[in-house]
Design goal:
The chain has 467 residues and is of the alpha+beta class. The protein is 39% helix and 10% strand. The protein has three domains: 140 residues, no CATH class; 40 residues, no CATH class; 205 residues, no CATH class. Strands 5, 6, 7, 8 and 9 form a five-stranded mixed sheet that branches. β3 and β4 form a beta hairpin. It is globular. The structure holds heme C (9 copies). The site of one heme C has 21 residues, from α10 and α12.
Length: 467
């Protein structure tokens, strides 16, 4: 027999496991007498029976790995929890009444126990469960992480309260594992705003989601979260920042909004055909092997090494598929959370647009790892400058005879920077002459084709690749 009842906005099904329960209830009632009043708490007799043994201080068991698992469940907290209409057996369906509590069972570790119990959540919270399964946290667990969270790391099933209750920021489950980031966040504009005025400002899940948490640097999810709250941000920047859209694409928000941060250029391997960041395939890692082969001395990839690496990545599959896209960002996860008020944000064009500008002194190459988190390798900073010489760019473009959208926007920036110094006057002149000629040739010709060389400065034609 299957019964349904409605709790909140959700249908809950339960099968009275009559035999098991009857046996347990009988056992408990016979040992403690009729002192249980099921009406008091709204709990069923069956649940009370469990709690009668389990709401006892000090009840615990030693697991195979030596850990102690506390077995105490507070009746009061359970009654006040969102699961008070759910019976113990809905989640603990594998309890054997005949032997339970008498015969010791074997559990390897707390972690193992949580992993087996997690399936219980799926029955009633399918949507959250599916979202979670698609997260970086779930991917980490699949990879064998002993530290990434499961449902019960963020929600105690016996004490869970409504998500609508706004607690202090310290109550976010993310804080206990991402301690340094939490500290930085709590001092940021958003942390301070939230402490002062409550929930309009985002807590961790406001920018990263709670269940479908993705690697932060993958795609544009986080930036889109910023823009979904700060709807007029683009317009507000347009007032002083020319071509705001381009700047927003080539610079992460914290790179300007965390004035004290160190910045760097991140060259991301990008699939120019599929239009997404290139990910390392599970089981067939290439990146480490290839970067080490290309940079045996570990001094950072130089121009030549970068070139041969790209060639390798384009070896199989569609030719010219793998390209590089540059982005200016802060150098660490902690720094990304030190957002300060707008008056401190960077607006001095010279911070970036001058020869030797600090953000361009550190360059890294990344690919998305199997779980989405970035794998990195250092690139020699001179590589950026040498890319501005037409010859080497041609070299890059020659790979697979398809255009490689190298550095995309950043290249232009370096060009702008170079004008004031580093390259010789003649080089610059020659450079621009050839750019001009190419541009003119292109204007007169048909729209750019895949197998045609396109100028580094011609980013308009690249716009679609960034969508
Ligand atoms: C007669 C007392 C008693 C009752 C009633 C009882 N338990 Fe237990 N329970 C225990 C003891 C003792 C242990 C520790 C067993 C061990 O050391 O292996 C335990 C262990 C557990 C564990 C830890 C996992 C395991 O299997 O060892 C869970 C979960 C649990 N009980 C849930 C329940 C639920 C749910 C009910 C009601 C359906 C219930 N218990 C009823 C005494 C009881
Ligand atoms: C919504 C599902 C759910 C309900 C309802 C539920 N439990 Fe649990 N219970 C779990 C999960 C999941 C775990 C594993 C905890 C973890 O991963 O830390 C667990 C663990 C336990 C443990 C082992 C100690 C611990 O905290 O890990 C005991 C004992 C227990 N439950 C008893 C009960 C009793 C008694 C009830 C009813 C009053 C109950 N549970 C109701 C899901 C539930
Ligand atoms: C038998 C069905 C059932 C199972 C199994 C179950 N839950 Fe629930 N859960 C509920 C119900 C019913 C509510 C109350 C929902 C409501 O009123 O909107 C709830 C509420 C919650 C809430 C609070 C939702 C809110 O509105 O803030 C969380 C968090 C939660 N459950 C997590 C879990 C986790 C984690 C597990 C697995 C350990 C689990 N649940 C297993 C039925 C279940
Ligand atoms: C990394 C921490 C984390 C993990 C893991 C996690 N949750 Fe949550 N969950 C949260 C937070 C934070 C909220 C608060 C709501 C929000 O901000 O979206 C929440 C909210 C919820 C809610 C209430 C949603 C609502 O909008 O009313 C349910 C139900 C829930 N979680 C179930 C689960 C289940 C089931 C799992 C396992 C599949 C799980 N959660 C795993 C952090 C987590
Ligand atoms: C205002 C939005 C925002 C909030 C709130 C926020 N983050 Fe982030 N988080 C970011 C941004 C932006 C990045 C950097 C993304 C990138 O590389 O483009 C990031 C990166 C991360 C990373 C990856 C760090 C790394 O080493 O690369 C983690 C982990 C993280 N956040 C966790 C948290 C936690 C935990 C909280 C809550 C204490 C939190 N975030 C709050 C925006 C936010
Ligand atoms: C039980 C511990 C735990 C909890 C709770 C937890 N995380 Fe994580 N998280 C990890 C671990 C471990 C990693 C992998 C190591 C790392 O990248 O920091 C990770 C990775 C991440 C990443 C990917 C990092 C990257 O490089 O982009 C993000 C984003 C993230 N967590 C956000 C959150 C958010 C948001 C919450 C709360 C809703 C949360 N985490 C709660 C343990 C946890
Ligand atoms: C090139 C540097 C730069 C970049 C990139 C940048 N900002 Fe700004 N932003 C600023 C400066 C400078 C101000 C202050 C302008 C003022 O006070 O008039 C500002 C102001 C703001 C404000 C306050 C607007 C107002 O006047 O109320 C918000 C919100 C904001 N930025 C969000 C963002 C977001 C979201 C992103 C990423 C999508 C971003 N910014 C990228 C430099 C930048
Ligand atoms: C959930 C909505 C929300 C999200 C997501 C969000 N913010 Fe905010 N932000 C706020 C609120 C609310 C404030 C405080 C009120 C205000 O100044 O607008 C604020 C303040 C700010 C300020 C300070 C503005 C000032 O007047 O000094 C900046 C800068 C800012 N946010 C940037 C960002 C960036 C960058 C991101 C993404 C990484 C982001 N915000 C994500 C809601 C949000
Ligand atoms: C934090 C670094 C940073 C700051 C500050 C900055 N820029 Fe930029 N700027 C860039 C980057 C990176 C690009 C490359 C984007 C591109 O070429 O599309 C760029 C590109 C440009 C371009 C070429 C874009 C186009 O439309 O082709 C111009 C013009 C420009 N910036 C002007 C300015 C001016 C004027 C300021 C000051 C008001 C400024 N920038 C502030 C980093 C910065």
């Amino acid at each position: 027999m299957k019964n349904f009842f409605k709790v909140g906005n959700m249908m809950v099904s339960f099968r009275p496991k009559s035999l098991i329960l009857a046996a347990l209830v009988a056992l408990v009632l016979s040992t403690v007498g009729m002192a249980i009043h099921a009406e008091d708490s709204g709990l069923s007799k069956e649940d009370k029976a469990c709690l009668n043994c389990h709401d006892k201080e000090g009840l615990g068991k030693t697991l195979e790995n030596g850990e102690t698992l506390s077995l105490q469940i507070s009746t009061k907290a359970y009654v006040e929890s969102m699961h008070n209409g759910t019976s113990c057996e809905d989640c603990h369906s594998d309890i054997d009444a005949k032997t339970h509590g008498k015969v010791k069972t074997s559990i390897n570790s707390k972690r193992d126990f949580s992993l087996t119990m997690q399936e219980a959540c799926r029955t009633c919270h399918k949507k959250k469960f599916t979202e979670y399964e698609d997260s970086v946290h779930a991917a980490l667990i699949k990879e064998g992480s002993k530290k990434a969270p499961m449902c019960s790391d963020c929600h105690n099933p016996h004490t869970v309260r409504s998500a609508k209750i706004i607690g202090p920021i310290t109550a976010t489950p993310c804080a206990k594992c991402h301690e340094d980031i939490f500290k930085a966040y709590s001092r940021s504009v958003h942390g301070q705003e939230r402490i002062a005025n409550g929930k309009a400002a985002p807590l961790c899940a406001g920018c990263h989601q709670a269940h479908a948490v993705k690697a932060a640097s993958l795609g544009n999810d986080v930036k889109e979260a910023c823009l979904s709250c700060h709807k007029n941000a683009v317009d507000m920047h347009k007032v002083w920042l020319p071509n705001t859209e381009r700047h927003f694409e080539a610079i992460s928000c914290p790179a300007c909004h965390v004035p004290t941060a160190q910045r760097r250029v991140n060259l991301r391997l990008y699939d120019g055909v599929g239009k997404h960041q290139v990910s390392e395939k599970t089981g067939v890692p290439q990146f480490e092997r290839l970067t080490h082969a290309a940079d045996a001395k570990d001094t950072g990839l130089n121009e030549r090494a970068l070139w041969s690496l790209l060639k390798e990545f384009n070896r199989d599959g569609v030719e010219g598929k793998t390209i590089l896209r540059g982005r200016l960002e802060v150098s660490s996860g902690v720094q990304a959370h030190q957002l300060s008020e707008k008056s401190k944000a960077i607006r001095d064009c010279n911070t970036c647009h001058q020869t030797g500008a600090a953000p361009f002194q550190s360059v890294t190459l990344t690919i998305a790892g199997p779980d989405g988190r970035p794998l990195r390798h250092d690139v020699q900073k001179d590589t950026l400058t040498s890319l501005t010489s037409m010859e080497s760019v041609r070299g890059f473009y020659a790979i697979g005879s398809t255009r490689i959208k190298l550095l995309d926007s950043l290249l232009v920036l370096v060009l702008l920077g170079s004008i004031s110094g580093s390259l010789g006057h003649m080089t610059i002149k020659r450079l621009f002459k050839s750019v001009r000629e190419k541009l003119e040739a292109e204007k007169n010709a048909a729209p750019p084709q895949a197998d045609k060389q396109v100028l580094p400065g011609d980013r308009r034609a690249d716009d679609d690749a960034s969508k």
